[in-house]
Every structure is written in structure tokens, then in C-alpha cells.
Amino acid sequence: MATRPLNPNAQPFYPPNTLHNQHVSAESTNQNITRSGRNRAKYEWRMKGTRPTTSKGKLPYNDGCATRGNVIPFPTTIEKSSITTVMIRNIPNQFTFCDLLKILDEHCFELNKNAENVAAYSKFDFLYLPMDFRKHAIEKKLSNLGYAFVNFTSPSAAFKFYMRFNGFVWNVTTNRKTCEINAAQYQGVEALIRKFREKVFRCKRSDFLPFVFWEHRDGFNSQVVGTTVGKHIWGLPRRT
């Protein structure tokens, strides 16, 4: 069988981990990578410190709210802040939705009782405390997953909450934790509703779902009832 002649114009081949490849600089490698869309946004944030958002209110990639190693820091002043939705970490697992709702109401009441006018009130319109559905269904125990999402109606209200509770040690007898406040991946009540309205919650209680408060809660109107977001199916949650 006749063999094919070698191509004299072919580029030389170097196996991986050879001495030649070890001398290839990272700068020349990065120049050959086409950064577009999502990759470009990640590159610009790492190199320039800018963090772009999309028109729907969602950050274009994971902002670290699900991992501890990559979080969005809050701005140093209220004037520079545009964050309205916060993620509360390290919540004692025995807290229920009503417990957290009471804490938020008391926080807003303490701020608003000395406010000059209603326009300066701290208010919130969304709250979601994820619960352990399976533990409640099988063991009949109420236990949250240790984090929650709250949307405030203004960046100043979110910043005041951050200043008050970031580093706060919960006053509980068991399961004491230090609270940590981060910016949420989805910003704004509209983005949160779009996120959760098609989600199926397979549990035995409707108060395990996210709640939106069309009449914003400000500490003085604790009688305001929220509306659930999402699809509730009564039953035992599926194993994942």
C-alpha cells in the first residue's frame, strides 16, 4: 500500500506537557481566545472590577450567592448602592417564615418611627425563606435551609438592613450563627417573580412558598397579607 507523502507546510506538533508548551505565556494564550457574550462579561469583571447586569435584572452569570467563595460586596455608601434584593445567610434553622417576617417588621419600624416623611420609609415587598420540605413531611419538623431572600423597595433601605444585620449574632439559645448579608443574584421584585412563578413547590404548606407584598410592609402595617409566588402541589417532595 502506498503511503501518503508528508505535508512540508504542516505546523509542528508538540505533545501536551512538553518543554515547548511550558514556555507558552498566558498572555499569548489569552490573545487567541475570543471573548464574547458571557465570557467577555466575566473577563471584564475580573480585570476591571465592573459587574454588568442584563435588562431583566439578573446578573449574566452566577454571582456567588450559591457559593461562599465569590460574593458581591455591598458599596461603601448609600449613594453608590443600587442593590435592593439581599440574600440573608446563616439563619438559625429553627426560624420560620413568621419569625423572619417579624424581625423585618421590627427592623423597619425602628427605622421609620423617626423618619421625617413617608417617602423616606424603609419597606420590603418580597420574602422567601426556603424550607426543608422532606424533613417536614417525614419527621414533622420545621427547618429552614439557612438562607432567605428579601427585596426592599429602595437601595437605601437595603443598605440600612445590611449595616444592621451583617455580622449580627442571632439571639437564640441553640444553633447560634453570625448573620451574613450579600447581594442576591436576581435584583428587583419583578425579576424575583419571573424566577419563581413557574417553579413547582411540592410541599404540604403554602407558607413555604415565596411571598410578594403588593402593599409594601413598613413595620406599621403588619396586618398586610402577601400573595404566594409559584405553583404549589400538595404532597411529598421528590428525592433529588
In short:
By secondary structure, the chain is α+β, with helices and mostly antiparallel strands. It folds into 2 domains: 35 residues, no CATH class; 172 residues, RRM (RNA recognition motif) domain (Alpha-Beta Plaits). The protein contains 7 helices and 8 strands, in the order αααβαβαβαβαββββ.
Report, as a whole number of angstroms, the end-to-end distance: 57 Å
CATH architecture classification name of the largest domain: 2-Layer Sandwich
How large a portion of the residues is in β-strands, by DSSP E?
15-25%
Helix/strand structural class: alpha+beta
Shape: globular
* Helical amount: 25-40%
Mean pLDDT: 75
| Number of distinct beta strands | 8
CATH class assignment of the largest domain: Alpha Beta
Listing every helix as H and every strand as E from the N terminus to the C terminus, the arrangement reads HHHEHEHEHEHEEEE
**Fold-level CATH name of the largest domain:** Alpha-Beta Plaits
Largest sheet: 6 strands, antiparallel
Q: Write the CATH homologous superfamily of the largest domain.
A: RRM (RNA recognition motif) domain
Count of spatially separate domains: 2
Region (Disordered): 1-57
Biased composition (Polar residues): 1-10, 18-36
Pfam family, one: RRM_2
GO molecular function: nucleic acid binding
